[in-house]
């Protein structure tokens, strides 16, 4: 790879990472706010648990439309190009986040408040359905084959970076607003999204279209109806790929969103301490994504991701054993270990999903597969985990069982799909 080609790959990888960080910031800020503010402002109820369940339900609503967004945006990504779709998804999701920060509360306008909130979540989820997979494809399709996992992982670095930004802005708004957090402080992280949109657009508008897509367009006409081809020839890969993502998403969103509610409401830990643990975890995942993506390029996707899936199975119970001590230090340790270990399955995932599908239908296939796993994993996991607290009078073991079962799905699907990296050509 020449210096010019390397510079191009670095630019595309940085733009994808920054864009994904902004998109995940938008989505995760809502999840954090659901646990501490939106449940009180938009879903007032006599039982605080009911308000939290309703807030997490709207969090899940944003996931329900993701597969539809993946199909529609993936269709145009495979026909028109990757770049225009990524500019569109970045702008739309950021605008929705900013608009949530401007919404009136239930006390001000009654039922109109939660209705507007749900509508914005639906629109946001639709566009996010085509974001992360498309960003990953742009990097992978610009990268040399022997470094696809490494450069592809830069896209997913946006997730912990977005988490870091979300936690940091929530901490800042809590500190700045103090007792007035529920009056106006909660709005700060949402409104800040407008600044991030400008940064993301600046980076994304400066990158070139995917070379693999350009070659496809020069050599033949793009697939007329990509989703039909995907459902005809690759439906099993779509479902198995969704299963791979299901276990990871279940674990990570319990760690990201549910843990804030559980730590503050059930264990009575300071909100700031739980948010700080998330910051430490975000840093740990950045390191692990880089480490494990390197290993995936060297040894293959399957052994590294399978190790990550087995970690999720094994750590489901120890995670809550540590957290349930009520110690801030052990909570931080548990969250950091969780983020680091999950990076083994997350880091190589960009290359893995891209390699599952042919270039002609890659955007559509990868996006739908990835987002189906997100719906049945991350979309429902905070809601399910909150409901499971009632199974045994607030004890955490049912949530651990839930995490283990979801992780076993990922392990089984990885074994069924096998390796996706092409063997290196023999050298004379």
TrEMBL record:
<feature type="transmembrane region" description="Helical">
    <location>
        <begin position="85"/>
        <end position="103"/>
    </location>
</feature>
<feature type="transmembrane region" description="Helical">
    <location>
        <begin position="366"/>
        <end position="391"/>
    </location>
</feature>
<feature type="transmembrane region" description="Helical">
    <location>
        <begin position="53"/>
        <end position="73"/>
    </location>
</feature>
<feature type="transmembrane region" description="Helical">
    <location>
        <begin position="238"/>
        <end position="261"/>
    </location>
</feature>
<feature type="transmembrane region" description="Helical">
    <location>
        <begin position="397"/>
        <end position="417"/>
    </location>
</feature>
<dbReference type="InterPro" id="IPR036259">
    <property type="entry name" value="MFS_trans_sf"/>
</dbReference>
<feature type="transmembrane region" description="Helical">
    <location>
        <begin position="109"/>
        <end position="128"/>
    </location>
</feature>
<keyword id="KW-0812">Transmembrane</keyword>
<feature type="transmembrane region" description="Helical">
    <location>
        <begin position="184"/>
        <end position="207"/>
    </location>
</feature>
<comment type="function">
    <text>May be a proton symporter involved in the uptake of osmolytes such as proline and glycine betaine.</text>
</comment>
<keyword id="KW-1133">Transmembrane helix</keyword>
<comment type="similarity">
    <text>Belongs to the major facilitator superfamily. Metabolite:H+ Symporter (MHS) family (TC 2.A.1.6) family.</text>
</comment>
<dbReference type="GO" id="GO:0015293">
    <property type="term" value="F:symporter activity"/>
</dbReference>
<keyword id="KW-0813">Transport</keyword>
<dbReference type="InterPro" id="IPR020846">
    <property type="entry name" value="MFS_dom"/>
</dbReference>
<feature type="transmembrane region" description="Helical">
    <location>
        <begin position="149"/>
        <end position="172"/>
    </location>
</feature>
<keyword id="KW-0769">Symport</keyword>
<feature type="domain" description="Major facilitator superfamily (MFS) profile">
    <location>
        <begin position="12"/>
        <end position="424"/>
    </location>
</feature>
<feature type="transmembrane region" description="Helical">
    <location>
        <begin position="329"/>
        <end position="354"/>
    </location>
</feature>
<dbReference type="InterPro" id="IPR011701">
    <property type="entry name" value="MFS"/>
</dbReference>
<feature type="transmembrane region" description="Helical">
    <location>
        <begin position="304"/>
        <end position="323"/>
    </location>
</feature>
<protein>
    <recommendedName>
        <fullName>Putative proline/betaine transporter</fullName>
    </recommendedName>
</protein>
<keyword id="KW-0472">Membrane</keyword>
<dbReference type="GO" id="GO:0005886">
    <property type="term" value="C:plasma membrane"/>
</dbReference>
<keyword id="KW-1003">Cell membrane</keyword>
<dbReference type="Pfam" id="PF07690">
    <property type="entry name" value="MFS_1"/>
</dbReference>
<feature type="transmembrane region" description="Helical">
    <location>
        <begin position="12"/>
        <end position="33"/>
    </location>
</feature>
<feature type="transmembrane region" description="Helical">
    <location>
        <begin position="273"/>
        <end position="292"/>
    </location>
</feature>
């Amino acid at each position: 790879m020449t210096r010019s080609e390397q510079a191009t790959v670095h630019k595309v990888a940085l733009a994808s990472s920054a864009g994904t960080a902004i998109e995940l910031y938008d989505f995760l800020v809502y999840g954090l706010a659901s646990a501490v503010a939106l449940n009180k402002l938009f879903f007032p109820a006599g039982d605080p648990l009911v308000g939290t369940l309703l807030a997490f339900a709207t969090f899940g609503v944003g996931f329900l439309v993701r597969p539809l967004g993946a199909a529609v945006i993936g269709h145009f990504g495979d026909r028109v190009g990757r770049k225009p779709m990524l500019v569109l998804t970045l702008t739309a999701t950021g605008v929705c986040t900013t608009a949530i920060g401007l919404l009136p509360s239930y006390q001000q306008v009654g039922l109109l408040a939660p209705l507007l909130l749900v509508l914005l979540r639906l629109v946001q989820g639709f566009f996010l359905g085509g974001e992360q997979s498309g960003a990953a494809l742009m990097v992978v399709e610009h990268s040399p084959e022997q470094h696809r996992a490494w450069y592809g992982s830069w896209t997913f670095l946006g997730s912990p970076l977005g988490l870091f930004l979300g936690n940091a802005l929530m901490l800042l708004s809590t500190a700045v607003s103090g007792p007035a957090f529920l009056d106006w402080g909660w709005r700060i992280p949402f409104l800040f999204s407008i600044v991030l949109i400008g940064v993301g657009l600046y980076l994304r508008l400066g990158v070139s279209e995917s070379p693999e897509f350009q070659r496809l367009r020069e050599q033949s006409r793009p697939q007329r109806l990509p989703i039909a081809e995907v459902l005809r020839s690759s439906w099993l890969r779509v479902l198995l790929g969704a299963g791979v993502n299901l276990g990871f998403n279940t674990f990570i969103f319990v760690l990201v969103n549910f843990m804030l509610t559980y730590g503050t409401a059930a264990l009575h830990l300071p909100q700031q301490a739980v948010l700080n643990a998330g910051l430490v975890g975000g840093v740990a995942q950045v390191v692990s994504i880089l480490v494990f993506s390197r290993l995936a390029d060297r040894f293959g996707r399957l052994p590294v991701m399978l190790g990550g899936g087995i970690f999720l199975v094994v750590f489901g119970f120890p995670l809550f054993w540590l957290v349930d001590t009520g110690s801030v230090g052990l909570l931080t340790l548990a969250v950091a270990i969780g983020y680091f270990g999950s990076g083994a399955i997350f880091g190589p995932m960009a290359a893995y999903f891209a390699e599952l599908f042919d270039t002609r239908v890659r955007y559509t296939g990868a996006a739908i597969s990835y987002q189906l796993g997100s719906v049945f994993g991350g979309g429902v996991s905070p809601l399910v985990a909150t409901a499971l607290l009632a199974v045994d009078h607030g004890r955490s073991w049912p949530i651990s069982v839930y995490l283990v079962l979801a992780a076993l799905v990922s392990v089984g699907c990885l074994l069924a799909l096998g390796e996706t990296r092409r063997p290196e050509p023999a050298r004379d």
